[in-house]
Amino acid sequence: MRRLLLALPLLGLALGALPPLLGPSLPPGTELRLLSPDLRTLHGAWRVEGKRLLPLSQPLAPRAGQEVQLLLALPGERPRPLPAVADRGDVLLLHQGERISLLRLLREVYGLTPPERLWP
């Protein structure tokens, strides 16, 4: 019983960690594109270069709370759409009923240095 009580704080820390929603790693050349749900409007595009996330286009800011699609294209793989919501310069990925910040995920899980905001 005592062991279980000692393990509970560690379990809490593990559950508080962000999951690697985008895959095990984001190698150089990975592209992220933010699109409207109907895939007609490109809100922004970025590429992983080293440990940085560099813009490929001038961003077109979506409305806060607008549903969007994040298209993840790893080198040599088919692009994968991920449902998300725009939020004041960030993208909140929808995962198991929760919203996870893309910028925080890129920093904390993948060790990248994204811009402070994806759009002004």
Automatic annotation (TrEMBL):
What is the official name of this protein in its record? Answer: Uncharacterized protein
